[in-house]
């Protein structure tokens, strides 16, 4: 079961299966060919309570809101069952590399972002970064999750995405380098 929360500029994704549940963002994974129960919240709603993607690989779901009219994409990956299960188990686990806690807190990132096992209880809600490095794009758009883009995003996200609600982060070059390396370790 997946709940897809429309956060305006990004997607919050809540997964539940058996006793396990976790929150992630922006990249929807489903097992190929399986019937997945989906609940949409926010402007995007569906009369279809289920989703089936029958072709393996990377897709783009298009969500359409009738009024006010809006169209957004959701990066979607359909994996075979074994691969999906590996992804699910990994996502449900807290971050393995926990060394970034002081870095994240000192740079102010923990005001808004969760990295499970590292920083929690942010005062503002932003995408969960626990396994950020396993996502292929940044910020729910076609921006590759690569070193250069990630550095640029952290300093001034609005230069890369007009509507971003992430403020500029005034971090010096050494801290930025450490932040990017840390985020890249979060598989
Ligand atoms: C005031 C809240 C706030 C602070 C502080 C903040 N962020 Fe963000 N961040 C956001 C929001 C909101 C988004 C989603 C923006 C969007 O997609 O339009 C985001 C997105 C991101 C993303 C992309 C996530 C994804 O799923 O693609 C990364 C990476 C990120 N922030 C890293 C950082 C780092 C590193 C810091 C600290 C230097 C930081 N953020 C500080 C609010 C914040």
Overview of this protein structure:
With about 190 residues, the protein is α+β, with helices and mostly antiparallel strands. It folds into 2 domains: about 1-90, no CATH class; about 100-185, Sandwich (Immunoglobulin-like), CATH 2.60.40. The chain is about 20% helix and about 30% strand. The protein contains 4 helices and 10 strands. It has helices at about 80-90, 100-105, 145-155, 175-185, and strands at about 1-5, 10-15, 20-25, 25-30, 35-40, 50, 55-65, 70-80, 135-140, 145. A 5-stranded mixed β-sheet has the order 3-2-1-5-6, with no helix packed on it. Strand 1 (about 1-5) and strand 2 form a beta hairpin. It is globular. The two termini are about 25 Å apart. About 20% of the residues are buried. The mean pLDDT is about 95. The protein binds heme C. Heme C binds near residues 107, 108, 111, 135 and 171.
Query: Which ligands does the model contain, each kind named once?
Result: heme C
Contiguous runs where pLDDT drops below 50 for at least 5 residues: none
Give the helices and strands as they follow along the chain.
EEEEEEEEHHEEHH
Main sheet characteristics: 5 strands, mixed
What is the helix fraction of residues, given as a range? 10-25%
Question: Taking strands numbered 1, 2, ... along the chain, how are they ordered across the largest sheet?
Answer: 3-2-1-5-6
Taking the alpha carbons of the first and last residues, their distance comes to 23 Å
Radius of gyration: 17 Å
Number of strands: 10
Strand content: 25-35%
Mean pLDDT across the residues is 95
Describe, in short, the structure shown.
The protein has helices spanning 81-92, 101-106, 147-155, 173-184, and strands spanning 2-6, 11-17, 20-25, 27-31, 36-41, 50-51, 57-65, 70-79, 137-138, 143-144. It has 187 residues and is of the alpha+beta class.
């Amino acid at each position: 079961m997946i709940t897809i929360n429309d956060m305006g500029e990004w997607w919050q994704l809540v997964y539940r299966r058996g006793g396990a549940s976790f929150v992630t963002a922006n990249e929807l994974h489903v097992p190929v060919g399986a019937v997945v129960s989906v609940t949409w919240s926010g402007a995007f709603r569906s009369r279809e309570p289920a989703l089936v993607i029958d072709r393996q690989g990377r897709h783009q779901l298009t969500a359409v809101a009738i009024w006010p009219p809006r169209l957004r994409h959701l990066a979607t990956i359909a994996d075979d069952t074994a691969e999906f299960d590996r992804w699910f188990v990994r996502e449900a686990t807290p971050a393995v590399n926990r060394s970034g806690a002081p870095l994240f807190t000192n740079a102010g990132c923990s005001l808004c972002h969760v990295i499970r096992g590292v920083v929690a209880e942010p005062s503002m809600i932003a995408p969960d970064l626990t396994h950020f490095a396993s996502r292929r794009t940044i910020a729910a758009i076609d921006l590759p999750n690569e070193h250069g883009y990630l550095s640029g995003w952290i300093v001034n996200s609005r230069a890369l995405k007009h509507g971003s609600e992430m403020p500029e982060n005034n971090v010096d070059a050494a801290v930025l380098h450490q932040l990017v390396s840390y985020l890249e370790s979060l598989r």
